[in-house]
Amino acid sequence: MQPILQMQGVSKAYGALTVADGLDLELREGEALGVIGPNGAGKSTMFNLIAGGVKPNAGTIRFAGQDITGLGAARRCRLGIGRSYQIPHPFAGMTVFENLLVGGVFGTGEAEKDVYDRCAGILDRAGLLAKANVRAGKLTLLERKRLEMARALATNPKLLLLDEIAGGLTEQECRSLVATIREIHASGISIIWIEHVVHALLAVVERLIVINFGSKIADGDPHEVMNSQVVREIYMGIEGDA
Amino acid sequence: MTDTKQHYVVERSTRTSRFASGAAAAIILALALAPWWAGLGELRILIEIFYYIALAQMWSLLAGYAGLVSIGQQAFVGLGGYLLFALAIFGGLHPIVALVVAGLVTAVAALPIALVAFRLTGAYFAIGTWVIAEVLRLSFAQFPALGGGSGISLPAGIVRDMAGSPEGRQFLVYWVALAIAFASIALVLALLRSRWGLAMTAIRDSRPASESLGVEAYRTKLMVYVLAAGMTGLSGGLIFLQKLRISPDAAFSVSDWTALVIFTVVIGGIGSVEGPIIGVILFFLLREVAADWGSWYLILMGSIAVVTMLFAPRGIWGLISSRYDLELFPVGRRLRVDPERRDRKE
Asked: What's the predicted TM-score (pTM) here?
């Protein structure tokens, strides 16, 4: 079967600083992939490359068979790539509900009235229904993170990119987040999830990759990757020879 | 998993806003009848208020909703004015027809200007728009046919043929001014209530996030810029149709057509439909009271602007609307769960 996402030799550098170095990645349709790596390894850059916020210097990116390397972020969203930002970017002057409508209307091209029910339903499931008419600028950090995900879902994505949404949550909040993401995954949406909270990640993903210095250094079964030499070197500072 | 099917209702108006629409209709009717209850002097002030409301609405739309802080809107005021004169003098069009054409042509002219200005962002965009307006001012001074640097008057014949009598001409200009003020408010309301209102506000609050949600930010900003330019050009045409005389310095004046407009929008409340109207009315009240105070008048105006920016960054309307949760012009979308029609299936 054709992969939903295919990155081939994707590179990006700002002057001498290389943030993506020949990235290769394939994602099956419906797959849930986890991404880990140290701070500054290039994980969020990978999302920017996939979602179109950043254009690569080299390589190609294909989504559902179509070459999207040269397309802007808005076009990619309408093709079915939804993303959340690591640092939430709420539309502070709009209400929470209007925040979702932006994704609902422009992510799908549907008429505004036709997306009211779906957006309200997403708010309900994200636990934000009570805040629907509150300005997004007044939300707490946790609510902002939920809004990030809800807004991305409103675009009806085929592929959802989640960037560190579990950080700073209590154990219980984290469990409910995991349940929500599992539901999203079960509904057939492909997911790539960058997360430092590894136990949450492992409760969802079927495959795990490790990014360091802008390239992929491990790729495979989540538990095998977690026990591999590279991960132990990066996360526990254990040198291979020591 | 709870899967209760709920019935959602989205409200596009509030009780206050429905009341306000009725009040607005009454006010517009009263204003339309002003030639029968007001003197020529009062009409002249009302005309000025109307075109400042239009200019203020357009600037607030640009800066408050689309995030385009322009200090070069005088480019379009001047273009509209000069086009009106050129079309009436050389094209032989009736000034009112020339006015409409001038507005349309100004909107078209805004496209190439935007292609240059949009390469800049933030403060650079602001300065860039100012520079473009200055270039236009200097360019129009180069046309001897349009009076060069000293300007030109609308020939007496054209003025005379505009209406049956001098009074009739004042009435005509008055009604056109009222129509332009009304149209500018209606344009902003229609935009904000449509999907473009969602897009513009989203771009203003976070451009990267809006694009990630499918909003074509560049195209949306371009559309708003062109619409605002067209309406500003129309206002410019009207301004000089009333003054009957145009010169590069008057037409492309940054202080008259942008700085003063920014003042009214800032004190009234940026990013709202109500704010610019309140700001313009307040400015004219201030001017009536304090215009004879010489430089103290300017110092007073400056102090008011500074105090407003420090203590009420969203202006007077911002204070009122957040205190009383008011919305006179309905642009929001309030979601309500309808409890009566809530199906319960466990």
From this structure: 0.88
